[in-house]
Amino acid sequence: MPLMKRKARPTGDIPTSSMADIAFLLLIFFLVTTVFDEERGLRIVLPEAAEEVEVSQRNILHLMIQPNGIVHVKRGESPQIDPQPASAIAAIWRQESAANPNLIAAVKTSPQAPYRFMVDVLDQLQLARADKISLQILE
Amino acid sequence: MMRKGGLKRKSKAASDIPSSSLADMAFLLLIFFMVTTTFRKEQQREVVFPDAEATQKLEEPRKDVLHVYVETDGAIYINDRLVPVENVSDVIAPLWADNRGLVVMIRSDRDVSYSRIDQILKELQAAGAVRVAFYTNLEQRMVRERR
Question: pTM for the complete prediction?
Answer without folding.
Answer: 0.72
